[in-house]
């Protein structure tokens, strides 16, 4: 697989030799270098694609994902806001913004983005789960339970949500219900370490 990725790099670089303003080739190099684990080269190529084509939605998203992976949430937010300017009603962009703001402990802005994601896609599992996590952290346990249960109504085999719901129910003093959630998590994923 690494040989194929290296061959892809050579092909894209040849294309850029012939056409130096080929944004898609830079974008594809960004993807390829990411797969090779070279985040610096990946970032550089996404930036080059965006210099050529500033409204390249996918390049903004992929660049934001790398920044987020590197813990550079402010840069991730900057790229996501550029993507949002291109496609304002994109649920996944709002979800990723929520994640970035959650990492920066800006709960209100994170909640707002998760809620916007849900207004666009009411079945967004990650948004329901992460709203549950934030409300749990804020001490609003009944609200957290509501979001976890909604996520489970959409996907009954969501191990992480059973675990999160179990923790919340435990804090509410509903011990039997919490144990049931942990058991359900283990039934779905027997080696889920957090449930032990």
Q: What's the layout of helices and strands?
A:
Layout: H1 2-18, H2 23-35, H3 39-52, H4 57-69, H5 73-86, H6 91-103, H7 107-120, H8 125-137, H9 141-154, H10 159-171, H11 175-188
Question: Would you kindly provide a written description of the structure presented here, covering whatever features stand out?
Answer:
- There is one protein chain.
- With 196 residues, the protein is mostly helical.
- It is built from 11 helices and no strands.
- The protein has helices spanning 2-18, 23-35, 39-52, 57-69, 73-86, 91-103, 107-120, 125-137, 141-154, 159-171, 175-188.
- Helix 5 runs antiparallel to helix 6 and helix 7 (107-120) runs antiparallel to helix 8 (125-137).
- The longest helix has 17 residues, at 2-18.
